[in-house]
């Protein structure tokens, strides 16, 4: 059982390091997810874990704690509608405003194990005629170094490729290796993965025409959401788009972003 002071320390630690806001009802979740971490590190209990984190601060153990508490649920073409609208509405609109040959830049801010950026890459490959030879750069980031490594490998289980991935993409863009499926090298080459904490500056990434930041803000408190949204707005082009998850919104959190013409799509306030 986690004592009040240990729980409060872990709650502050996770919020400061990852933005994750844990409610009072998450004690059991904390214990369940941290138990494997403690066993691997030969830590005898929560109190010793907290004492070690207090003493060492940034350390492999601290990274393991953050990794364990991060939700990395992802699937190909998740919710489908944002990808349909990307192909039918957003890409044609942005391309019509850009000079011929000017690249488009897309950022997946919570890429997890890579299904979202690879879904975008496959969709773009299917719409090469629309792009007219225009180069598209996809930047994919995540807090977790472990999931970024998995994403870079581009290898998925049978269960993972059956979740949301249309059969024609599986046949065209993957090669089977035993019980696993590896995404083709040309699709992998379209995505540049790197580790990034959204609580820290991301101005060095440059400007983006489209930002996917789906199903991550729901884990932050209001102040953190507002801060992250404000900094996302600063790296969006003046006519760029932000795409959030179905349960997320900028309302009451950002003065720089307003709803676009489609649900879940937001634009800069001009």
From TrEMBL:
Molecular-function annotations in GO: protein-glutamate O-methyltransferase activity
So what does this thing catalyse? L-glutamyl-[protein] + S-adenosyl-L-methionine = [protein]-L-glutamate 5-O-methyl ester + S-adenosyl-L-homocysteine
Which lineage ranks, top first, belong to the organism behind this chain?
Bacteria, Pseudomonadati, Pseudomonadota, Alphaproteobacteria, Hyphomicrobiales
Read off the Pfam families from this record: CheR (PF01739), CheR_N (PF03705)
For this UniProt record, give its keywords in alphabetical order, as a comma-separated list. Answer: Methyltransferase, S-adenosyl-L-methionine, Transferase
Q: Which SUPFAM superfamilies match?
A: Chemotaxis receptor methyltransferase CheR, N-terminal domain, S-adenosyl-L-methionine-dependent methyltransferases
**Keyword Methyltransferase on this protein?**
yes
| Name of the molecule in the record | protein-glutamate O-methyltransferase
Gene Ontology BP annotations = methylation
The reply to whether Transmembrane helix figures as a keyword in the UniProt entry is: no
Q: What EC number(s) is this enzyme filed under?
A: 2.1.1.80
The CheR-type methyltransferase domain, residue ranges = 1-270
């Amino acid at each position: 059982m986690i004592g009040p002071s240990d729980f409060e320390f872990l709650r502050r630690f996770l919020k400061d390091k990852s933005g994750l806001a844990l409610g009072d009802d998450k004690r059991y979740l904390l214990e369940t997810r941290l138990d494997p971490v403690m066993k691997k590190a030969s830590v005898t209990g929560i109190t010793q874990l907290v004492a070690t984190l207090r003493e060492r601060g940034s350390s492999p153990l601290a990274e393991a704690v953050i990794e364990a508490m991060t939700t990395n649920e992802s699937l190909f073409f998740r919710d489908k509608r944002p990808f349909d609208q990307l192909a039918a509405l957003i890409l044609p609109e942005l391309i019509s405003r850009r000079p011929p040959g000017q690249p488009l830049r897309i950022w997946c801010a919570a890429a997890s194990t890579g299904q979202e950026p690879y879904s975008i890459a496959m969709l773009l490959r299917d719409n090469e005629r629309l792009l007219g030879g225009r180069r598209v750069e996809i930047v994919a980031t995540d807090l977790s170094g472990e999931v970024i490594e998995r994403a870079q490998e581009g290898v998925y289980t049978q269960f993972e490729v059956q979740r949301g991935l249309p059969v024609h993409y599986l046949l065209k863009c993957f090669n089977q290796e035993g019980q696993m499926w590896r995404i083709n090298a040309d699709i992998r080459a379209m995505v540049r993965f790197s580790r990034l904490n959204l609580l820290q500056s991301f101005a060095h990434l440059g400007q983006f025409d489209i930002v996917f930041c789906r199903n991550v803000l729901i884990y932050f408190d209001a102040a953190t959401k507002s801060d992250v949204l404000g900094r996302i707005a600063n790296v969006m082009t003046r006519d760029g788009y932000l795409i959030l998850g179905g349960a997320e919104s900028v309302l009451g959190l950002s003065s720089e972003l307003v709803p676009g013409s489609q649900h879940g799509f937001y634009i800069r306030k001009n």
